[in-house]
Design goal:
heterodimer; A: 388 residues; alpha/beta; Rossmann fold; Ubiquitin-like (UB roll); de novo design (two linked rop proteins); 3 domains; 5-stranded mixed β-sheet; 4-stranded parallel β-sheet; 11 strands; 45% helix; globular; B: 155 residues; alpha+beta; Glutaredoxin; 2 domains; elongated
């Protein structure tokens, strides 16, 4: 077992420079091509969980035809076990605004929105104050890019980018068919870059450090650092900025309570990793990806209860638009209850597994497609707990 | 500008505008003011924004924080997602049920409190957690809940 502790990184939450919006000012002196080259070179991938290369997203939006474009910051942090975006917006909002403004200049947008989940409404007064000062600064910098806050109202699905646009447009938060992708048809059907809160902050880090220094953190597939939300059975729950590409066993050594049975990586829509697989699991895009949620369970926890809780969550949060997700979530939940009660034989779990696989293939958006992640990883690894 | 009692729909429309993108802020404004959106509110908003009442109803009923049935002055939403559940959500709910003499989903007869459960509030590292209207409370214990609810009862 390694004695070395995980390297704590202090980039994102690092001190502000004394000069407000300094990185933004120096970035604006550079050409859009230069900025995109640096982003591409840095290997930055979206921090919301899906990991799309940020430079490509910006490039597509910059090249998309249209005189009106938008930048949207996805702060609808709803994944169970995730709370890092709130912390980022609370502690370093100026870095978020700067990242959005750089994006606006690169793609040719004059308007940015922060879509903030309704659960975080208490943050609005502080954010608005900070935005006032931002708007004064960009006037001095001669940049035409305003930022406005839009509120969600308690719907997990609105973290899905196209559902988020629907919500911003005043509709039900029901995901759209893709393609077209947001870079050609996003908010108001206009070319839009939508990135996670943390992604925008990473852009600012790359602008400040340069891609070479940024790349020193992480692994070849997972560049940079990541803000992790650690919760569950741990003596030290909270927010930690760590290098990507770390082995899970070292994470558990550091954050577990000595009796860790499983770690749910990536929230309810992520994967459950049991103890026996800790030493060959890597946290990052080459292994188990995560938007930052790390929930630790010790041996006193029933994994049946964990799965039951997740399925209840999905059943409620499914938008109901497509049948595989709407009916699938209900049936998976009913199914595990029936097996547990002995109303169905244990082999029924195989049927449920097939159902979750069908959802993965046929559901319209990431919500329905990812239910199978936690379902199959919990059922496969903790079958006895599902039955007895 | 804060909308007044009588004419709140008109005033919200004046603040947020008449486009479809104004619908969410208007509905959120009604909830902030009246704790829920009545059928009459929805019809009026539809008229103002030149939408069908069904479209307004569709949007309003999609979101769990846009209540369309009467709620109390203080809406308590207790997080029921896994880490809060593991860390004693049940006791927290029980405490409030005893204090308020209502069950989850109900409103007190004096229309002061509504007790609800909700999905992940994003305070997993400090669970159990709850929202009272827009204010989050985390690291809840029975004693803490007693103090918080007593304070609201005296408001």
């Amino acid at each position: 077992m390694s004695e070395q502790t995980l390297k704590r990184v202090d980039l994102i939450f690092g001190e502000y420079s004394n000069e407000k919006y300094k990185v933004l000012a120096t970035s604006l002196e550079r050409t859009n091509e230069d900025i995109l080259t640096d982003l591409l070179e840095s290997g930055l991938r979206g921090r919301g969980g899906a990991g799309f290369p940020t430079a490509m997203k910006w490039k597509y939006a910059a090249e998309a035809p249209g005189d009106e474009k938008f930048v949207v910051c996805n702060a609808d942090e709803g994944e169970p076990g995730t709370f890092k975006d709130r912390e980022i917006l609370y502690r370093v909002p100026r870095k978020v605004f700067s990242g959005m403004a750089i994006c606006g200049r690169v793609i040719g947008a004059a308007k940015g929105y922060i879509y903030l989940r309704g659960e975080y409404k208490f943050m609005v007064p502080e954010l608005k104050k900070e935005l006032e000062s931002y708007h004064e600064h960009i006037k001095e910098l001669g940049l035409d890019f305003t930022i406005e806050i839009k509120m969600g109202s308690g719907a997990y699905i609105c973290g899905e980018e196209s559902a988020l646009f629907e919500s911003m447009e005043g509709g039900r938060g029901e995901p759209r068919n893709k393609p077209p992708y947001p870079t050609t048809s996003g908010f108001m059907k206009k070319p839009t870059v939508i990135n996670n809160v943390e992604t925008f902050v990473n852009v600012v880090m790359i602008m400040r450090l340069g891609p070479d220094q940024y790349k020193k953190l992480g692994t070849s597939d997972s560049r940079g650092s990541k803000v992790f939300s650690v919760s569950g059975d741990t003596p030290i729950p909270g927010i930690y900025e760590l290098e990507l590409g770390m082995p899970l066993d070292r994470f558990v050594d550091e954050f577990g309570d000595g009796d860790t049975k499983a770690v749910q990586v990536g929230g309810a829509s992520g994967f459950c990793v049991p103890r026996k697989k800790f030493n060959d699991t890597v946290i990052g895009f080459e292994g188990v990806p995560t938007g930052g949620s790390m929930m630790i369970f010790n041996s006193s926890r029933s994994m049946y209860n964990v799965l039951h809780n997740y399925l209840e969550f999905f059943e409620e949060e499914s938008c109901g638009q497509c049948t595989p997700c709407r009916v699938g979530c209900q049936q998976l939940l009913k199914g595990i209850v029936a097996v547990k009660k002995g109303e169905k034989k244990a082999v029924y779990l195989d049927q449920l597994m097939k159902l979750s696989e069908s959802m993965k293939i046929t559901a319209k958006c990431g919500l329905g497609q990812s239910v199978a992640n936690s379902f199959s990883s919990i059922v496969n690894n903790f079958k006895e707990e599902m039955i007895y | 500008m804060v909308p007044t009692e009588s004419n709140y729909i008109n005033e919200l429309v004046e603040i947020h505008g008449r486009s479809r993108t104004s619908l969410m802020p208007i509905l959120q404004g009604v909830v902030a003011l009246k704790n829920y959106i009545s059928d009459q509110d929805m019809t009026e908003i539809a008229n103002e924004l030149d939408l069908s009442a069904a479209q307004v109803y569709g949007t309003a009923t999609f979101y769990s924080f846009l209540d369309t049935i009467p709620r109390g002055e203080y809406v308590i939403r207790v997080c029921k997602t896994i880490t809060c559940d593991m860390h004693g959500k049940r006791t927290i709910i029980q405490t409030m049920e005893d204090m308020l003499k209502i069950k989850v989903g109900e409103t007190t007869p004096n229309k002061k409190f509504t007790l609800l459960e909700t999905n992940c509030l994003g305070w997993c590292h400090e669970g159990p957690a709850m929202l009272i209207n827009d204010t989050p409370y985390s690291g809840l214990t029975v004693e803490k809940v007693h103090d918080i609810i007593s304070e609201y009862m005296n408001k």
